[in-house]
Amino acid sequence: MDDETTKSTSSLAEAGDAVSLEAMIARAARSGKGAPPVERWNPAFCGDLDMEIKADGTWFYMGTPIGRPALVQLFSSVLRKDEDGKTYLVTPVEKVGIRVEDAPFLAVEMVVTGAGEEQVLTFRTNVGDVVEAGPEHELRFVDQPETGGLKPYLHVRGRLEALVARPVMYDLVEAGEEIEIDGQLMFAIRSRGSVFPVMPIAELDRLSQ
């Protein structure tokens, strides 16, 4: 980032409204080609911002939903989750913490192409990412003891994941099959040559009764 751009960058921590945030992040996003290289930036931490991403994918700023999809997409382009488990908005000169209720993104659409070992699952997130599940973008399934169900997550970038929305979860189950893994018959999902185990077939049969 050149000196002129750095001088014109507003402070995230001091921005008084979403418009100021938008202008600042737009400058950061235009500083490079393609997606901002947030993983390579190492700015100082400047405190927390009153921004939260709810479990349903809705973004709130100062308690008010951010209604402009383009603005949410812009903010999402500079999201980063660090080793401390916290999520930040990051620019070349500063980073601020935000709250995330579950996953920062929501997978809202899935397309299946191919079949068997050639099957590919392609997801679209609520902020416009298009991701093919596979070796670089794994699927994982988290038990929900309180409901007896599962929550599927898709790796999007860095340490950021998308929660697979419930309607898409049904499509995901339709794409599954019985696969023997390490001597155990599992219900699993294939995509781009990777196999993602969901649960033992015996457990699936029990839940289906």
UniProtKB/TrEMBL annotation:
Domain of life of the native organism: Bacteria
The record ties this protein, via InterPro entries, to: DUF1285, DUF1285_beta_roll_sf, DUF1285_C, DUF1285_N
* Pfam families reported for this sequence: DUF1285_C (PF21028), DUF1285_N (PF06938)
Q: Which residues form the DUF1285 domain?
A: 36-103, 104-198
- What are the TM regions of this chain, as residue ranges? none
- What is this protein identified as? DUF1285 domain-containing protein
Species the sequence originates in: Nitratireductor aquimarinus
The opening ranks of the lineage are: Bacteria, Pseudomonadati, Pseudomonadota, Alphaproteobacteria, Hyphomicrobiales
